[in-house]
């Protein structure tokens, strides 16, 4: 059964770069037809999709964050990563990684839903 | 961007009652790209329904989804204690990124 686990610093200073990694176990990133996504949730608020990547490196980004976001994949380590530059207090959130499935990369059909999810990691932006 | 509006914001019900949650989209959404999630405090969201009406693996049949175009519904036929949670709908459209509704809290 596929499992995902986020890792990275829990505290980031304003204007710096938030860096998180998601490690996938129970399956291979490179043998899946799925994408791999990042979603965040500010404390007490709703969910916001950040971006998704396929093992080939093809990405989708949320236009509202695209200028600050880099998502990459390292198939040899079965991991994918998120970098969010120039963070502010508004970027404080629980960050989740998830399998972004229900699509078909080779036919060009975008993914549809997120399942399963990692447990999430709280990142606080504060000086 | 397609905006999803969920109603009501909070639904107060008793065990065994039927819960009906609404998700309205600002533009038509393909049913293939409408999903529902359940989130309990301190936990990650869990996929319940995908493609508007298909139950995810391991989801009890008291959960059902329906709807099309701009109006979608999640129904819980008989509330169990573990069903009290926040529920989110989520969509994707060719001219819009993946977005979530603001959530409906189901409480006792």
Can you put this structure into words, describing what you see?
The complex is a heterodimer of chains A (127) and B (108). By secondary structure, chain A is mainly β. Chain A is 0% helix and 49% strand. Chain A has strands spanning 3-7, 11-12, 18-25, 35-41, 48-53, 59-61, 69-74, 79-84, 93-101, 113-117, 121-125. In chain A, the strands form 2 sheets. In chain A, strands 2, 4, 5, 6, 9, 10 and 11 form a 7-stranded mixed sheet that branches. In chain A, strands 1-3-8-7 form a 4-stranded antiparallel sheet, with no helix packed on it. In chain A, strand 7 and strand 8 form a beta hairpin. With 108 residues, chain B is mostly beta strands. Helix content of chain B is 0%, strand content 57%. The radius of gyration of chain B is 13 Å and the shape is globular. The model of chain B has no long low-confidence stretch (mean pLDDT 95).
What attributes does this structure have?
heterodimer; A: 127 residues; mainly beta; four-stranded antiparallel sheet; 49% strand; B: mainly beta
- How many strand segments of chain A? 11
Largest interface: A-B, 24 and 24 residues
Structural class of chain A: mainly beta
- Looking at the structure, what is the overall shape of chain A? globular
Low-confidence stretches of chain A: none
Measured distance between first and last alpha carbons of chain B: 34 Å
Taking all Cα atoms into account, the compactness measure Rg of chain B is 13 Å
Question: Can you count the helices of chain A?
Answer: 0
Helicity range of the residues of chain A?
A: under 10%
Can you describe this structure in just a few lines?
The complex is a heterodimer of chains A (about 130) and B (about 110). Chain A is mainly beta.
List the helices and strands and how they pair.
The complex is a heterodimer of chains A (127) and B (108).
Chain A: E1 3-7, E2 11-12, E3 18-25, E4 35-41, E5 48-53, E6 59-61, E7 69-74, E8 79-84, E9 93-101, E10 113-117, E11 121-125
Parallel strand pairs in A: 2-11
Antiparallel strand pairs in A: 1-3, 3-8, 4-5, 4-9, 5-6, 7-8, 9-10, 9-11
Chain B: E1 4-7, E2 10-12, E3 19-29, E4 34-39, E5 46-50, E6 54-55, E7 63-76, E8 86-93, E9 96-100, E10 104-107
């Amino acid at each position: 059964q596929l499992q995902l686990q986020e890792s990275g610093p829990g505290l980031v200073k304003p204007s710096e770069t938030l860096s998180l990694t998601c490690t996938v176990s129970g399956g291979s990133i490179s043998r899946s037809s799925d994408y791999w996504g990042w979603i965040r949730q500010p404390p007490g608020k709703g969910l916001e999709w950040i971006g998704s990547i396929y093992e080939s490196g093809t990405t989708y980004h949320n236009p509202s964050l695209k200028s600050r976001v880099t998502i990459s994949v390292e198939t040899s380590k079965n991991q994918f990563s998120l970098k969010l530059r120039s963070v502010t207090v508004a970027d404080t959130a629980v960050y989740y990684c998830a399998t972004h499935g229900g699509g078909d990369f080779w036919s060009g059909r975008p993914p549809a839903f997120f399942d399963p999810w990692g447990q999430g990691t709280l990142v606080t932006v504060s000086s | 961007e397609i905006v999803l509006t969920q109603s009501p914001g909070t639904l107060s019900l008793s065990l065994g009652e039927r819960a009906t949650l609404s998700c309205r989209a600002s533009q038509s959404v393909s049913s293939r790209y409408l999903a529902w999630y359940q989130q309990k405090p301190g936990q990650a969201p869990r996929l319940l329904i995908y493609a508007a009406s298909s139950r995810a693996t391991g989801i009890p049949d008291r959960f059902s989804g329906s709807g099309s175009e701009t109006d979608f519904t999640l129904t819980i036929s008989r509330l169990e204690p573990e069903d009290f949670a926040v529920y989110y709908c989520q969509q994707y459209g060719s001219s819009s990124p993946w977005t979530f509704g603001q959530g409906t809290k189901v409480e006792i």
